[in-house]
Design goal:
PiggyBac transposable element-derived protein 4; elongated; nine-stranded mixed beta sheet; alpha+beta; PGBD; 2 domains
């Protein structure tokens, strides 16, 4: 992967600066990427290069590794592919400038690791405000604007298993989608494709959870635990209505191998969950919470830790163009 980045960066540098370009190599590129990660870890990703290289308040590690001119030059000409030899034009796949590197990265993730029994799903927003076809606005996130990635992680170790960039409601060779299936359901199916038939559990939030998804995963020998939006059409009216139950009260509903539970966790708020792993109305003797609720909370911790770590350590490095912001990962 590093060798490819070195090759494509040198090609771009020679194309633009010609004989004035000084070729980079794998050692320098590793140092450059390390500095970007360090900038993110120091929470300086929003700072200008002038500040990072300033004499008093600058980043000592970066200044010791590069001159401002060289660092800026590598940043400007950093490339992950050669656009003159792309097999898929950008019009067909907006992610094509970094697609090959992204696929190689995921190949390495899966090469030496086998996850435990539980896999969690969630989304991550990579902060970015530049020009990009698939930029997203999520008001609930701290940064609000950016490019979105759907992740699958091992619930026990937080290890990332697979990620899919969200390119909008489009259909490409890399993002095929059946229009009759929700984005969330199709995403979970893609993220778990390497684990079909393994008997593992999938935990997700209400963006992904759907009855059709639960049935589809069951055919692939995967169980599902997830929160459900109140407006889902498959829910009975009793679950869709905001009925106030007693605090810590639970209402169960069973359908073949699928269980629904409505749990009153706050005085004026209840949460709805779907599960194909538990088929009994089991409630904890310690706190009165349904076992489904406890299982969901426990299994989602891994992914929350992973996305939190990414948010704290990412560095866009003021790179231009949507896909470049993914170099932070």
């Amino acid at each position: 992967m590093i060798d490819d980045v070195v090759e494509f960066t040198n090609r771009e540098g020679r194309r633009v600066k010609q004989t004035a370009w000084r070729d980079t190599d794998a050692t320098e590129m590793k140092a450059f990427i390390g500095c970007l990660v360090h900038i993110g870890a120091m929470r300086q990703s929003g700072c200008s290069l002038k500040f990072i290289f300033s004499a008093i308040e600058g980043n000592a590690l970066v200044k010791a590794s590069f001159s401002l001119k060289r660092f800026s030059s590598l940043l400007n000409y950093l490339r992950f592919d050669d656009k003159s030899t792309r097999t898929v034009p950008r019009e067909e796949d907006s992610f094509t400038p970094i697609r090959d590197l992204w696929d190689s990265f995921h190949g390495n993730l899966a090469k030496f690791y086998s996850p435990g029994q539980s896999i969690t799903m969630d989304e991550q927003l990579v902060p970015f405000r530049g020009h990009c076809k698939f930029i997203q606005y999520i008001p609930s996130k701290l940064d609000k604007y950016g490019t979105k990635i759907f992740w699958a992680c091992d619930a026990e170790t937080n290890y990332p298993l697979r990620g899919i960039p969200y390119l909008g409601r489009v259909t490409t060779s890399h993002q095929p989608r059946d229009r009759s299936v929700s984005v969330g359901a199709s995403t979970v199916t893609s993220l778990t494709q390497d684990f079909h038939g393994s008997g593992r559990n999938v935990t997700c939030d209400n963006f992904f959870t759907d009855l059709n998804l639960a049935e589809s995963l069951a055919k692939k020998k995967l169980t599902l635990v997830g929160t459900v939006k109140r407006n889902k059409t498959f829910l009975p009216k009793d679950f869709q209505e905001k009925k106030a139950l007693e605090l810590d009260a639970s209402n169960f509903l069973f359908r073949q191998d699928t269980t629904l539970v409505s749990y009153q966790n706050k005085r004026n708020k209840n949460v709805i969950l779907m599960c194909t792993m538990h088929n009994k109305p089991e409630v904890s003797e310690n706190n009165g919470k349904p076992e489904i609720v406890l299982a969901s909370s426990k299994l989602k911790v891994g992914l929350m830790q992973w996305t939190k770590w990414l948010t704290r350590s990412q560095s866009s490095g003021r790179l231009k163009g949507g896909p470049w912001s993914f170099s932070s990962i």
